[in-house]
Specification:
9 helices; mainly alpha
């Protein structure tokens, strides 16, 4: 009887120790899992903040470059105040050119960062100019993909630069027929064509969507024009 009680006591003690250790392990695992997710979440948040900061830095560099250019131009004017001709070697900023690439020599990455930031804040004119400079000056750069072309097209459309919008969106359609932006690009290119008076090309796109993409959000937009287009060109 004493031996049985001793054995039972020993087994009970061992079970308690195992359970206690397992509980510690379980708590440790849960703690580590929580810490890991916390680190991953913090990393994602930092990455997003970093992209915003990069765009702000590029914008500040733009403003700093403008100030330095003005300073150089003023210094040159003071130095040559007695000269009859102006100094041709000092590039002058153009008021309607928000990029002034010849002065600032933007990198493709900075052009894109500012274009995206200005589009996000609905500053469409500035966004359109930076996107257009990127796509026109660096058409084969690795960062110029379907998403960038779509952003360039939308910024141009909203800035009422419909020729730019048609150019960028048509390039997307031709180069990326399997892109998730494909139908959207055709839609906004067609609306730009409508706004530039090319109603026949617009009507062609409307008919294409009627036949191929009836169950899409794009058709819901274009269908509003269908009766009017059908009356003008199909009577």
């Amino acid at each position: 009887m004493t031996k049985t009680v001793f054995t039972w006591t020993l087994l009970s003690t061992a079970w308690v120790l195992v359970a206690w250790n397992w509980g510690r392990f379980d708590l440790s695992f849960a703690s580590k899992l929580s810490q890991t997710w916390g680190h991953e979440k913090a990393a994602l948040e930092l990455a997003g903040e970093n992209r915003v900061l990069q765009a702000k830095i590029a914008d500040l560099e733009h403003k700093l470059g403008a100030l330095e250019s003005e300073k150089s131009a003023l210094a040159a004017q003071v130095k040559n105040a007695g000269a009859a001709r102006s100094i041709a070697s000092v590039p002058k900023a153009k008021a309607d050119d928000l990029v002034n690439y010849d002065i600032y020599q933007w990198s493709p990455e900075k052009l894109l960062a500012i274009g995206e930031k200005e589009l996000h804040f609905k500053h469409y004119e500035k966004s359109a100019q930076f996107y257009h400079e990127l796509v026109t000056r660096f058409p084969n750069h690795k960062i110029v993909n379907d998403k960038v072309l779509f952003g360039a097209g939308i910024a141009a459309y909203e800035a009422k630069k419909h020729d730019w919008a048609i150019k960028h969106l048509t390039t997307l359609v031709d180069k990326y027929p399997k892109s998730s932006f494909y139908r959207g690009a055709k839609l906004w290119a067609a609306l730009s064509q409508y706004n530039t008076g090319n109603h026949r090309k617009f009507a062609s796109t409307v008919e294409e969507f009627r036949l191929k993409y009836r169950n899409t959000d794009e058709w819901k937009i274009l269908s509003k024009y269908y009766e009017d287009i059908n009356y003008k060109f199909k009577k």
